[in-house]
Design goal:
15-stranded antiparallel beta sheet; 6-stranded mixed beta sheet; alpha+beta
Length: 872
């Protein structure tokens, strides 16, 4: 009998986050409350929580006013300092709450456009909460009954609007991604190359480079365009129409409707998108003859030493080297974690500012690569990035991160000295030091505006003598990157809504590129007397060289001017000024109550076969998540009940499943299960991933007799235990990231013991998986064997004591599906991708990414006890 289940209401979580825990190690938490927020935090985040409490309610009212709604939801905000990679998210399930990672932002990243890191991070996530819970009165009534997570914008708002509204609103004061030329350059480069994304592509349909950044960057700039052209009031109206109005009017025009977009803005979406393209395009000539030295990929952390260049490719998970004389490129070592910076010493050693995984959370780490030995040495300095060698052996300069703040630091052994202290609105990045160790330079950003800081320095003592800041000509803005050549030339880059261009400072002469070059100039460095840089193009990033003849680039010169900057070094942050009031220990009990529930119903040809409800319960610190559902089965007059609980307080995570269901096969039977599991995974710096899963429990069956109670005694029951160990390594390319090269292996052991109708001897079996891909070839081999008892394997899976199929990890290929099972079983697959076409086009309501043609062969072989074969 075929059954169809309907959810009366559907909730879509905008972002899915999976972490072992937000806090590692687990420790006492506290909370402080405002009118609209409960802020949850550990002791290390006390000052940040107090600072947030001082502006959270006002920010909520401001965002609600901008989007023409009212503050109506009380939310939890969780602050965690245990990830040293900045992130945050708004999670609507099972109730709206915000998570903020208390980590520092790099000036050189797209988030480096923020003028107050913590405030803008919260502003962005709260804008999600406000926009996605914009509701009509009718929707408010529904949400008050079933839960605040129920909002139509989750379903109706295109993803470029979901992220566009937040990126545009974070930028209203001139400092945010929708005002940042680094972000805008992505769109302008697409226009230059004739690859400007369509509206549908910017929704996330386009899945090539730059991948998930498309809907942030296109969406942010498009929302800014709409706000500036039509006004904030009209822009807010479109969010009102993403609510219940979306049920009655499509977003775009159709055969019988002009669509919500036209009704709000008075022009079609197609016309607005064309105007947007004209608005964002570069209005001046651009040199298009970029000198690319590498194929398109991702690139980060470009560095130079002598005649050699070094960089990290995060897609391929490798650090590369290129000899600028021979133009020979070679991989040096695997690096599957983000690399913030590479610094090369004169003897070939590389200082790698990267990350490592601790309890599932990213932590900053320093590693040194010794090419003569081919090994890494861990440098025992915590919370430091952007590190460089100094002339004094065993000492380093770097950026010391302190929650949302960054400080310029000097490090010797395990000791650290803060040279320049940052605040919530004063940040440092990209330190460099002269060969004699007497001068150091770094980027400094104050209230969203960046410049160059010069410090007279005694590297032997780690002491500052004086500090000056470069007075930039008015033409230069949005300064990023910084490098220092062996001859003492400082290189950095600037942009004024065109593309990033080169700036050089040598012998107190400032020289900057006026005419942009296609791809822009990012991370410029000197090697072998020539400037090399990363160019960012529509289909990826490439290593480029600056033309020897710079005439077309129109360099402008001026005398460098410096101003005293000693006042920067001793600033006091607002975090230090916060008074801790109204703080008490965190109380998890109120969050145990169900806050979201949905009615369920199942129907078949005879009518309603079951009805009930489902609820989700979780705490805002995401240490556990529980789903509980219950449905009355009208066919057998019994209750289908399922409970799934995941505890993420520890590594590994703990899961519990309790279920009692009535299932129809050839006849009705009752299946009851109780299982507990442990799961963990770890990824190595070199890209190797190791995971394991342990589970155990009991499964019981009862075949239902007509006319009797649904709760008849179980007739069959088995204890079941399983363990899975997996190992994998993959390496991608930009063009075929969705089909990476690599290998994987897994081993699973399963043991069962029948206890009903009587206790029998244990059953046991093992499974293995071996898979590899070297595109366009891929191969996989699976094998399973009985170790004891009656357990068997076949094309349809694993059979416990001959009763029913149970879980296994090899795929079930429809060509071979049957219920036969054997003591020994294997199957294999070999395939070849013959052709692949990139389409990336919309066809009506359907979007086509690519079309591939594959050919291959599948086979299985099974063996009885006497090893007589049965194969296909």
């Amino acid at each position: 009998m075929k059954r169809l289940t309907f959810l009366f209401f559907l909730v879509i979580a905008v972002t899915s986050h999976s972490h072992a825990d937000l806090y590692s190690p687990n420790r006492q938490l506290f909370e402080t409350k405002t009118k609209y927020f409960t802020i949850i935090f550990p002791e290390e985040s006390r000052a940040a929580a107090s600072y947030l409490a001082s502006f959270a309610d006002d920010t909520y009212m401001e965002l609600a006013r901008l989007l023409n709604t009212k503050p109506k939801i009380k939310m939890a905000v969780v602050i965690t300092p245990d990830s040293e990679e900045l992130n945050g998210y708004f999670n609507p399930l099972p109730y709206p709450h915000i998570v903020l990672y208390q980590a520092a932002i790099d000036i050189n990243s797209s988030l480096g456009s923020f003028d107050n890191n913590f405030y803008k991070l919260f502003y962005h996530e709260l804008a999600h909460a406000v926009s996605l819970t914009t509701r009509s009165m009718a929707e408010d009534v529904i949400a008050s009954i079933f839960g605040q997570a129920l909002s139509m914008p989750f379903l109706a708002a295109p993803y470029n609007f979901v992220e566009g509204v937040t990126v545009s609103l974070e930028s209203r004061n001139g400092h945010g991604r929708a005002m940042d030329p680094l972000v805008g350059a992505e769109l302008r480069q697409d226009i230059l190359e004739g690859r400007f994304k369509s509206f549908i592509q910017s929704m996330g349909s386009y899945d090539l480079y730059p991948f998930g950044a498309v809907y942030y960057h296109y969406g942010g700039y498009f929302s800014r365009f709409l706000q500036e052209r039509f006004g904030m009031e009209n822009y807010a109206r479109i969010w009102t129409r993403f609510g219940i109005g979306a049920l009655f009017s499509p977003f775009d025009r159709g055969l019988f409707s002009k669509g919500s977009f036209y009704k709000v803005f008075g022009i079609s979406l197609e016309e607005a998108w064309k105007d947007f393209s004209d608005w964002v395009a570069i209005k001046t000539p651009v040199v298009t003859s970029s000198q690319k030295l590498t194929e398109a990929s991702y690139m980060s952390a470009l560095a130079a030493s002598g005649t050699r260049l070094y960089w990290h490719d995060p897609v391929k998970g490798l650090v590369f080297s290129l000899d600028t004389e021979s133009k020979k490129q070679s991989p040096l070592f695997k690096a599957d974690k983000p690399v913030n910076r590479i610094d090369a010493s004169g003897d070939g050693r590389l200082l790698i500012s990267t990350q490592e995984e601790k309890a599932g959370l990213p932590r900053l780490a320093l590693k040194e690569w010794e090419p003569s030995k081919g090994i890494f040495t861990q440098i025992d300095i915590k919370s430091v990035r952007d590190a460089v060698y100094t002339p004094v052996p065993g000492t380093y300069l770097g950026i010391l991160t302190d929650g949302y703040m960054t400080h310029l630091g000097f490090f010797s052994g395990k000791s650290a000295r803060i040279l320049a202290k940052g605040t919530e609105s004063l940040s440092y990045a990209s330190p460099v030091i002269s060969k004699d160790g007497k001068e150091l330079f770094c980027l400094v950003k104050e209230n969203g505006t960046s410049s160059i800081l010069k410090i007279s320095f005694d590297s032997s003592l780690g002491e500052i003598n004086s500090a000056e800041r470069l007075v930039l000509p008015k033409a230069l803005s949005w300064i990023r990157y910084l490098s220092l050549s062996e001859n003492g030339t400082l290189s950095f880059a600037w942009d004024n809504d065109k593309l990033y261009r080169l700036v050089e400072l040598k012998n107190e002469k400032l020289s900057w590129q006026n005419m942009p070059i296609s791809g822009g100039v990012h991370y410029p460095v000197y090697a072998n007397g020539q400037i090399f840089y990363i160019g960012r193009f529509s289909q990826g990033q490439s290593l480029c060289s600056m033309p020897e003849d710079r005439t077309l680039l129109e360099f402008i010169e001026a005398e460098a001017q410096w101003e005293d900057a000693s006042g920067l070094l001793g600033r006091t942050s607002l975090f230090e000024k916060q008074a801790s009031t109204g703080i008490k220990p965190y109380n998890p009990l109120p969050w145990l109550l169900p806050r979201l529930w949905l009615p369920l119903a199942s129907v078949d040809s005879e009518g309603i076969s079951s009805f009930g409800a489902i609820t989700i319960i979780a705490d805002p610190i995401e240490s556990y998540s529980m789903t509980l559902s219950s449905e009355w089965n009208t066919r057998v007059e019994g209750l289908n009940t399922n409970l799934e609980l995941t505890m993420m307080l520890w590594q590994p995570s703990l899961s519990l499943k309790l279920a009692d269901n009535f299932v129809e096969a050839s006849s009705w039977f009752r299946l009851s299960e109780a299982f507990v599991g442990l799961e963990n995974q770890h990824s190595h710096f070199g890209g190797l991933r190791l995971g394991y899963n342990l589970s155990g429990g009991i499964a019981a069956y009862a075949r239902l007799e007509p006319g009797l109670s649904a709760y008849q005694p179980w007739t069959d029951a088995s204890l079941i235990a399983a363990g899975l160990l997996s190992l994998s390594y993959t390496k991608s390319s930009l063009e075929s990231y969705y089909e990476p090269n690599g290998y994987s292996a897994a081993l699973k052991l399963t043991g069962t013991n029948t206890i009903l109708p009587e206790i029998q001897s244990p059953d046991a079996g093992t499974e293995i998986k071996l898979a590899a891909a070297i595109q366009p070839f891929s191969a996989a081999f699976y094998a399973a064997a009985r170790l004891a008892g009656k357990l068997g394997y076949g094309p349809s899976g694993m059979f416990l004591s001959g009763i029913a199929p149970a879980s296994n990890f090899y795929p079930h290929w429809k060509e071979f599906m049957d219920l036969r099972h054997y003591p020994y079983y294997s199957q294999a697959e070999l395939s070849l991708k013959l052709l692949s076409f990139e389409i990336q086009r919309a066809m009506g309501s359907l979007y086509l990414n690519r079309l591939s043609f594959k050919a291959g062969s599948r086979a299985y072989a099974s063996f009885a006890e006497d090893f007589s074969a049965d194969s296909r």
